[in-house]
Amino acid sequence: MLPSFKLHMHHAILDRLAKVGKYDGKHPSLTCATSSGKVFLHNPHEKNDDEADQAVRFLNINREVSAIAVGKFRDQDAGDTLIVGTHANILGYNVEKNSDTFYKDVPDGVNTMLFGSLPNIPSKMVMVGGNCSIQGFDREGNEMFWTVTGDNVTALTLCDVTGGGKDELVVGSDDFEIRAFQAEDVVCECSETSRILDLTTIQKQLFGYALDNGTVGVYKNNHRVWRVKSKNVPTSITSFDINGDGELEIVIGWNNGKLEARSIANGAAVYRDHFSSPIAAVLAADYRLRGTSEIICCATDGEIRGYAYDGADGRKETATILMDDITAEEKEVQALIKSKAHLMNQLKAFENASAKTTKGSSVRVATSTKISIVPSTTISHSNVELTVSTDNDSIIKMLVIFDYDAGIFDGESLVIRPATPGSKIQVALPPLKKSIAVTLYFRVGNRGNGNMFHVFEETFALPKFAMYVPLKSLSGERPTGCVKFKKPLRMPQFGAWIKSAFLPSDETTFNELDTTSGNVDFIVKHVVDNSIVAITTTTTDMEIRVNDMTVAAELIQDLCHHLQIDELESIADFPAQFAAFRDLLVRVDDYNSIRLKLTGDMADDSNQIKHLVIRAEDARIINDMKGMRSFYSELFTLNNQLLGEYTKRATNHQALLDALKDVNSMIQLAARLRNGQAKAAVIVACRKAIKANNIHALFYIVKTGREESR
């Protein structure tokens, strides 16, 4: 398949900042953000000669563009509205009328944008991902939706992840998490190994993702279907049937200029092409008005190529196609042939091994050999250790551990080759922050210098709170922070959760945990920072004492997930963090006051500059050189002053963004201390209190999870 068209804009295109919109309602225009705070629009249907530049027009935003979105707010709108986002505001623009439709300050920042609607808000809106927050604005710039997430939002898409017939808002963020939101509630969460760069909807329950570490893959619901990893970085992804087989493929642009399409079923490569510059964006649209969509690939140097499957031409160019269009029966036959070849290779390897051995049974590893893996956590070693051993005299020559999800190893793997091989190896793992499942490969042989080895494969899972060591008793004071709630479970269920979330230690085992009575006092200690967590139950209530609000939230969410608790309300009290939160809110007010003052001062200086420019020009016209030099000297001084004020404003703005991010993080933590409707209610109530600038109400909501009754 050859490109259906090629263009060159001769202007740089920023990563993932390209969209196609029909601003007059009929003709598609390619809209791209370029350097120097500009956006250019290319409409091939307005071109009157052979020069592509004749169809290009520019919009001067005069600020660095961080996101763009295109769409209709209402079905009856004549054409699409262009939304341009900068780091502190968004601008709605009517391209045909050359006029602004709205302008909105967004203190939380603008990292990515998406046009669409949510089930609970049927009207179309532009959704803005910022610093730990997601906001939705209507056609007049009014806020229609607001929620918080774990970190800076980097990617947004809409997909029916749960299969319930309604789209969820799928959000990727800097904390390596992909979350699906129904209104303010997180219904699906997937952990990855790097920062999420892009997301794309494929079809019901299927969506694709791209990571900063070179990984591209597909999820169905919260289960990963497949993934591939490259040394290069994916810059943009979309879904499209590129080979006309009736099945969508995931199309990927890379920073080395490679464009490729992969099957959504197994990740097999279907098509590949190369550009001379990195790919900036990959889009799907009917750009040439042929009645069918095509792939539009934009490179960072301004080169544009289109790709469309020509169903009338049954030929495919073998230089670019990596897989033939074959029937289902032929695919099955090919799979069987591959399986046969694999088995034949294995058989040949066994035959060669048998031929080399003179006394087979004496040098081979016993077929009954078993590998045992025992995890342990000790305060003295400050880490989690895996003790790997064989059940006979066989020795472990080499151990390779793969971790594909948690990212605890550099390069996703750890290779251990002991200087003196033995039947037992102890492996110290890096600090864990979540549950992990590792795959271990053992190279096992007999003692001596034999060259016959057997490779064992084992999968082993570690619980989420493996870094905590259970204690028999607590000698010091209990943590001051706590969260209380009605006990939502029976004691046998509580015991089952404890065993699934923690590891036993040398000091205590779970067999000593008495869950027959309603009163349990379970105490654990973190092996690195020595922080204490005390979980206490009575016949009716449950209390978690810990000084870190984040740990309390993680414990509650894990408890609700493991025991399928749909609704949970709680009362929280974390004195140290609440005091820091109060200071944070005071700083936010101070930053806002400084921002307004600096903005006013810069406006006054700008007016004075205009006045001095006019007076200097008047002096030049009347040949008053002395006056002109005086005015230009004042102008030079004032310009330097403006530059200094701008530096102050930029510093203050960054401090404000950081503070707002911390505010949003606290709101999310408060929500995660609850579950179900109570969790969503906290987010809505906190937003209402922030808009009303009611600090007292905000603290009441964070503590109790409810709005204060009047």
UniProtKB/TrEMBL annotation:
BBS2 platform domain span: 473-561
Originating species: Aphanomyces euteiches
Keyword Ribonucleoprotein appears in the UniProt entry: no
Signal peptide: none
Cell compartments where the protein resides: Cell projection, Cilium; Cytoplasm, Cytoskeleton
Matching PANTHER family: BARDET-BIEDL SYNDROME 2 PROTEIN
GO BP terms, alphabetized: non-motile cilium assembly
Keyword vocabulary terms for this entry: Cell projection, Cilium, Cytoplasm, Cytoskeleton
Record-annotated Ciliary BBSome complex subunit 2 middle region domain positions: 155-262
BBS2 hairpin domain segment(s): 575-672
Gene Ontology CC annotations of this record: BBSome; ciliary basal body; membrane; motile cilium
Protein name (record): Bardet-Biedl syndrome 2 protein homolog
Ranges for domain Ciliary BBSome complex subunit 2 N-terminal: 20-116
